[in-house]
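Message: Just now I want nothing more than another pair of eyes on a protein record. I am handing you a single protein, as its sequence and its fold in token form. As I understand it, each token names a local backbone shape. Take your time, and here it is.
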Amino acid sequence: MTTAIRAGRTPHRGASNRTILATGAGPNRRQNKYVVLADGAGKLTPAGAWYYETTGAQRPRAAFSQDQELISRGGNDYIRTRDRREALVRSLRADGSVRITQLGRTFFRSRYREYVVHVPVTIRGRHKNGKDYDREDWLPLHKLGIAGIMESEQYTKAQAHARVRSRVLSELGLRTQGGETVLLEVSGETYTYNREGEWQISSMATEAGRDGEAVTDVAIRQPMAALPTSLRACAAQLPDPEQILAEAFEEHADKLCVCRQLAALLKRTMQAIVDTLHALKEGDEWMQHGLSAEDLRTFCISEGYPFFFASSSRLLLAYEPEQKQGKAIACTLHDGHCYMYRSARCLASWHVRESVSTDRAKLQQEAKSTLPPLSAWERWDELPRQGQFWCEDLAKVRQWFLCTGRNPRITLKSVVDISSLKYVCTQRKDGAEGTCKIRQLPAEAESIQRWLAKLPLGDDFEYRGEGLPAIAQRVFSALLKAERRSPAQAERQRILEEQDRRCALCGGHFDNDLCWDHATPLRQTVRGQAQLFQAICASCHAEKTALEGRQA
């Protein structure tokens, strides 16, 4: 059992309602070894007592399993008890109210959801030319000084959202201006509550542990079978989207998207995958709600496949067997749907992180990029394809993407102001592949180009669609940039004599590895300023160059 615990395996209920823990593959790969932790009534075996004492995991309840999904039918919600019967926990009355049964109160007692809220707002301000403007957007709740909102899972989704909205509005301490509700005023802009706008509310499940601490389980136990009826082209939101299987973007009415992608990746029949999962899950009940990341890891452990699972741009699960028996499986979860990769290399170098830092960090799939010259941009024409595009109203372009079932990745330049949109085209949705990037031209773009034409910047300097502050800084740097030069022969001789023909950094003698280095980095030297040199060895020069590159 120690090996099973280290591998991250978790107990589950078998067909006989016993709580069992898989301990490894048997002689036949279709037959797995397991140990019984509790009987159908929830009574622990000696092995079960040792397991729950060692891991601190929540002990099985006699009446039902706490981590199961609700069964919804009509206006009622049920759970499955250990005798395999369905028991009512919540029902919708004719007047719209909800009744929670006694069993339901026990079931929901330690189950909560934390809601992440974006409030619909109208932003109003004034351009430098005196012209007023307004646009609609969403304001993250934490920008208003309100932390996450917790609600019990006993409420339906509609009830919970209504309670969240009510609590948010009551905590804001709102004031009105000109008949409108003001939420925030910053940098000359006023954010007012848009009463007609749609709130953006997402949630993550939270369960109270044995010690009373809240344990949040966002992705690992979530079934990976959600897919909107209109397929959302969300590739731009995912790490390495070009490596995702085409089968991940297919629409099917069943909950077998994970099986379908496994079959394509492993080049096995879908029926073979389903049969294996029937054996692992001891039945076919899983087909009603789909597979979770934990289920997929159990499959990989039984088959000897390495496994990597990511969500929200961080690695949550990783399993690497001592003896690899097949192709590594890597996937990411987005919007409740599983996206598998053709190759696991894109996630294999990541590291599992137990917590998330709030500091801004460069993600593994991010890279520095340079905008192409404005002359290479195309005007946005609502035809997604690879290229760089410009538009006059980025908020409206984003709205068009969302209304057509596409979900572009946004880059923010302030609290809510969008800097750019990035959308990865898929053959199935768009009839094209590649990355579509869209930016909004600044209002003064034409004036900036006329100004640049009058400056002695050279043919290599090209306008790339920047705003006035960014282009002013680039122009200033270009005008003051020092031209690179090398020391003259007499200067070289003087420097070597002053350094006693030794490396200025390590003091070692030169062995045909002398390099002439700028004592002050060239980028810190302006035009007309003296350039100071030093003689250093090749190894010191490489280290100094690498250090300066990291500091740039």
Observations:
- The mean pLDDT is 77.
- The two ends are 51 Å apart (CA to CA).
- The longest helix spans residues 157-171.
- DSSP finds 14 helices and 26 strands in the chain.
